[in-house]
Amino acid sequence: MPSASDRENKSSSLIVTLVATSFFMENLDGTIIATTLPQMARSFNVHPADI
Fold it and tell me: Quick one: average pLDDT of 11-15?
């Protein structure tokens, strides 16, 4: 049976992994949007700064 400290270490590791994954996904999303803005602006017939 796992001890309390083992469970605490596992939950801490899970939280750290979730936070790191969230930051990675946020950066990835921002990069994708930034690179596609000119294409999206052309599709909507607006200036990229207006998007």
Answer: 92
Burial label for 41, CB within 10 Å (0-12, 13-18, 19+), is middle
Domain boundaries, the chain: 20-51
Q: Residues 4-36, buried b or exposed e (16+ Cβ, 10 A)? A: eeeeeeeeeeeeeeeeeeeeeeeeeeeeeeeee
* Cα distance between residue 40 and residue 33, in whole Å: 9
Model confidence, pTM: 0.62
